[in-house]
Every structure is written in structure tokens, then in C-alpha cells.
Write a structure and sequence with these properties.
heterodimer, A: 8 helices, globular, B: mainly alpha, 8 helices
Chain lengths: ~200, ~170
């Protein structure tokens, strides 16, 4: 992944310089280098307060055990999506916790829980090929649902959005649709791609 | 409709603080501990963002971003998307910080409450960084062959792109 980003970044820089040469916008380009680097710092500083406030609030919810409570609500869905997993086994539990943490936007907590879930699934799969449960789990994580996309809302506020959270219903509908499309495709393809 | 955004934040805060208080969480201590994590993650993304926001500003200032958008305009029209969000759709599955940088540029150029700004917001709020998730989770357990994972996840990403324009039209007309 990082390798790909190296190519993309190099392309962005080199292609910009080439375009500026052709269009004669060299002075705008050099101003953009200075302003761009500077504005990243200003942006992060401006957003840090709001980000801290949200992670602080989410920590309160987490401390009250909301992750465990919500994870229980997901169990029936988990059973259907992962028929090969033991009911209430350690793999199913870790997957529930991971999906809940993602839903609450607890990114720092979600990734270790997800890795724990993958390790549980790996115990039943000695090969180097993904099984259906692993594929389904990663697809769910890749199109993950987030109840309150705080980072994006903070960024919107930073650029002067009138009410930064007004896009929430659109975000929810879109993520549910994307999740359903991903999960359905995974189910449809899982019989065909062995080997 | 105009005002419900004003209720969202206080409502969430009310629920969380009340929930924490009733469950006997030391609410302020927990808040401070969480805020510390937020500060750390803010600081740790800064170098990545400097590199990527700089690169995206360069793309924008040199006219390369307009060129890319107009090159992708036929695809955007076919999907019903504003052409400005196409660079975001391309980088979103690959890099989270890269998509933040592109999103920032879209807000700067079009404004967060424009059609393009809203579609870009929905797009970036509704999917994760697909290739990052694949790399992290399969990498952690040494899986080499991911079978149908990437095709299925990308179907999800494309669906999110198409739906983002549709849902913004649905809620903001």
C-alpha cells in the first residue's frame, strides 16, 4: 500500500511541475508549495480541539460499556453473515466488538479488535488463502458504517459550513447502501473464487 | 430541517454524558484520557497531511487538478457526479490522508455547502480506505490470496460514489 502511495505522491509533484511549466503558472506553483505545507499545519491545529472533544466524549461512552452493549445487538446479523463461525465464540465476539467500535468512530480501538478477530479466524485456516469469513469481515470493514463521521464534520465546520452535520442522513443512507452492495457481492462471489 | 443540525451535537453530548454518569464512569477523567488520544492522533497525522496537502495544492495551482477533472468529466457525467469530486473518488480507496487533502481542496474551491462539497462530504464519510483495511487485516495474519475481497469491497466503493450524488440530491432539493 505504501509503495503505491509513493508512486502517487511522486506523480502528483512531478505532474504539477510539468503542468505549471506548460501553462506558465510557475509563480502560483511555488506559492502553493509554501501555502500548502503551511495550511496543513494550520488546519490540524484548528481541528485538534474539536477532535479531542469528540475522542474524549467517545471515551466516556466506551468507559460505560457501550461497545459491549451494542455488540450484543449485532450478534444475530453476525451469525447470518458468518455461518462458519461458532455462535458466541471468540471470533464472533471480536468481530462484534470491531464492528461496534467502527460504528462509534473509535478508529484506534477498532483496528486492534479487528486484528484480534482475524487471528481467531486464522486458527481454523492454516493456509495462506482467505476463507469466506475473512473476506466478508474485511469487506465489512472496508465499507464501514460510522454513525457520526466527526472528522469530516469538523473539516466542514472549519471551511465554514452553515450546519456541518446536515449531511448525516445522506451519509447514513449512502453507507448502508454501499455496505449492502459490498456484502451481497462478497456472498455472490464466495462460491466461485476458490484457489 | 434548517435547525435540526443545531440539536445533533447537544443531543449526542447529553446521551453520552448521561449514559457515562449513570454507568458510574469517572466522566471527566475519561474525557481527558480520550482527548489525549485525540491529540496524539492529530499530531501523528500531521506529517502525512503536510506532504499530501502540499502535493494537492500544487496540483490545484498548476492547473493539473482541473485537467484531471475535465479528463474524468465523461465518467463523472455517466455516474451523475460533479466532475470536481472525481479525484476524491479515485484516491479514497487508496489513502485516507490523501482523500482528506483532496477533500480540503474541494471545500476551498467549491465550499462545503455547494453540491460538489456535499457530495464529496458524503463520499468521504461513507466508506473506509479499502486497500488499507485489506493490507492491515490480511497482513496481520499472513494471508496472501485475498480471493474476492477486493472486487467486493470495490463494488461497495463504487456504490458509495453513485449513491452520494443521489442522496445529496434527495436531501438537499
Amino acid at each position: 500500500m505504501n509503495i503505491l502511495l509513493n508512486y502517487i505522491w511522486a506523480f502528483m509533484i512531478l505532474f504539477s511541475i510539468f503542468c505549471a511549466l506548460v501553462t506558465g503558472r510557475m509563480s502560483q506553483l511555488s506559492a502553493a508549495v509554501l501555502n500548502g505545507a503551511g495550511s496543513a499545519v494550520t488546519l490540524v491545529i484548528a481541528m485538534t480541539g474539536m477532535m479531542c472533544a469528540w475522542t474524549g466524549l467517545m471515551k466516556i461512552a466506551d468507559g460505560g460499556g457501550i461497545t459491549g452493549l451494542l455488540a450484543k445487538a449485532f450478534r444475530p446479523a453476525i451469525r447470518r453473515l458468518f455461518p462458519s463461525c461458532e455462535k458466541d465464540g471468540p471470533a464472533a465476539k471480536a468481530m462484534c466488538m470491531n464492528i461496534t467500535a467502527n460504528l462509534l468512530g473509535l478508529g484506534n480501538a477498532a483496528t486492534p479488535l479487528g486484528i484480534a478477530a482475524m487471528k481467531e479466524l486464522k486458527k481454523k485456516n492454516p493456509t495462506r488463502t482467505a476463507d469466506n469469513a475473512m473476506a466478508m469481515f474485511v469487506v465489512i470493514n472496508a465499507s464501514s458504517l460510522q454513525l457520526i463521521p466527526t472528522f469530516m464534520a469538523t473539516l466542514r465546520a472549519q471551511y465554514g459550513a452553515a450546519s456541518p452535520f446536515d449531511i448525516l442522513p445522506a451519509v447514513w443512507l449512502t453507507s448502508v447502501g454501499a455496505l449492502l452492495a459490498g456484502v451481497t457481492t462478497a456472498k455472490l462471489l464466495e462460491g466461485r473464487t476458490y484457489g | 430541517m434548517d435547525n435540526y443540525g443545531a440539536y445533533a451535537v447537544p443531543a449526542v453530548m447529553l446521551c453520552i454524558v448521561l449514559f457515562g454518569f449513570l454507568r458510574r464512569v469517572p466522566v471527566f477523567d475519561a474525557f481527558v484520557a480520550g482527548a489525549k488520544e485525540g491529540l496524539q492522533s492529530s499530531i501523528s497525522i500531521l506529517p502525512t497531511l503536510v506532504g499530501l496537502i502540499m502535493a494537492v495544492s500544487m496540483l490545484s495551482a498548476s492547473g493539473a487538478l482541473d485537467l484531471l477533472s475535465s479528463f474524468l468529466a465523461p465518467a463523472a457525467n455517466a455516474l451523475g457526479l460533479p466532475p470536481q469530486v472525481m479525484p476524491l473518488a479515485l484516491i479514497k480507496p487508496i489513502s485516507g490522508s490523501g482523500s482528506t487533502a483532496v477533500l480540503t481542496q474541494i471545500y476551498k474551491d467549491c465550499g462545503p455547502d455547494s453540491f460538489a462539497g456535499r457530495v464529496a462530504s458524503v463520499m468521504s464519510g461513507s466508506t473506509e480506505t479499502t486497500f488499507y483495511a485489506v493490507a492491515v487485516y490480511f497482513g496481520a495474519v499472513g494471508i496472501k490470496k485475498t480471493r474476492h475481497t477486493i472486487p467486493a469491497a470495490l463494488v461497495g466503493d463504487v456504490t458509495a460514489c453513485i449513491l452520494s450524488a443521489f442522496t445529496v440530491r434527495l436531501f438537499f432539493r
